[in-house]
Amino acid sequence: xxxxxxxxxxxxxxxxxxxxxxxxxxxxxxxxxxxxxxxxxxxxxxxxxxxxxxxxxxxxxxxxxxxxxxxxxxxxxxxxxxxxxxxxxxxxxxxxxxxxxxxxxxxxxxxxxxxxxxxxxxxxxxxxxxxxxxxxxxxxxxxxxxxxxxxxxxxxxx
Length: 158
Known about the structure:
Elements: H1 9-32, E1 39-40, E2 45-47, E3 53-56, E4 59-60, H2 76-93, E5 98-106, E6 112-118, E7 121-122, H3 123-129, E8 134-135, H4 150-156
Parallel strand pairs: 3-6
Antiparallel strand pairs: 1-2, 2-3, 4-8, 5-6, 6-7
């Protein structure tokens, strides 16, 4: 007695489509397997490819958080500038080999305070030179830059 296996046509179609989607997903992953990217939560902090939370040393960028959020932007223009600064950081580090050139230890939020390099270039200095970030001696008690002033808005605007 032979067993006959039958399958409804719609189930066969669904299985074929699911298999094709899996193949496409694997091909897309293979195409993007290169240097892992940094995840930037804002313009001066984020997560390294290994999952380490970090903050750039001696640099500040405008905040992207809500005006109502503690530690967020102080005005809407700061928030807008924050997204410009974040995009500058993303573009600078996209597909580059990221190296921690110096680690200073954890900050009060548990993030590692670091100097990063990409392609031999200091990330913080490049962002400051690009005008989207400001040098800031956080450890020395220097006041945080005022991103809501008219001068700051003119200096960073694209």
